[in-house]
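Can anyone check this?
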Amino acid sequence: MKQKIILWIEDYLFFPNYFQKILSYLLLPLSFFYIFIIFIKRVTSSKIDFGIPVISIGNLTVGGSGKTPITIELAKSIKDVCVILRGYGRVSKGLFVVSLNGEIKVDVSISGDEAMLLSTSLKNATVIVSEDRALGINKAKELGCKVVFLDDGFSKYCIKKFDILLRPKDEPTNNFCIPSGAYREPKSFYKKANLVLKEGIDFKRVVEIKKDGKKSELPEKTILLTAISKPKRLLEFLPKNIETIFFEDHHTFTKDEIDTILEKYREFGIVTTQKDFVKLEKFYLKNIYIMDLKIKLSEKLDFKELNAYLNTNS
């Protein structure tokens, strides 16, 4: 039942059917009020210069669009880099240094799944979770970091930064803001970004199936277990008609849930994402396969403006 609700909400926000469109039109007054609040915040915010290059990786729609793998790809070659994010799904509150120059300091319950994935993927970076991004930036400076990446920082209007927006390959079929549609900010705000990267043109996802760190083939009987936003996007990389178990985004798996799944699917392998695996690792599942996602950037991409920003503000 929960899986059906998750998929219904995804369809309603991104690709609504006739009846879902009627609901979205009924909710338009709330969307207009929401947009009004956004414009007020943007107009009244004064940008703070923290004296350090700040690069925001964001998107205009709700849910995943590749922010984490893009951040990994862009940050991996930068020295003394720090990634700051809110840390959705964590049990903690406040500021925590998840990793310091590659050394992991907390567990996934404190960091949240995305922060832990960044920490394990960026071997020399510092990762901080903080609801207050300004506080996080000041902490990064205190720790000696020279460049900051903000995960999902486009709406932080009070921070002087270089804004990169990711544009999905399959865009929503309606252009409304929430709750009538999938946009968190008006679609016209793409023009306000310093750089827009379109999936399928500027970058593409490359997925390799791995088991125990080595390339592998999925068994004939496999279930997809995941707790990410828009889970159906994973299906293009997997066999047709694969069994699926979807939880809400950032869900923390429990032992009872895993035991129930293992009991029902005794003869099945389990395939999951890297982000999910940082939460599943503690269960020591034997027959688990990882969707190892990498981002391939287009050779035609022009990063001159980004490089100029880094050189000017470093």
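Reply from J.R.: I decoded it. The chain has a mean pLDDT of 92.
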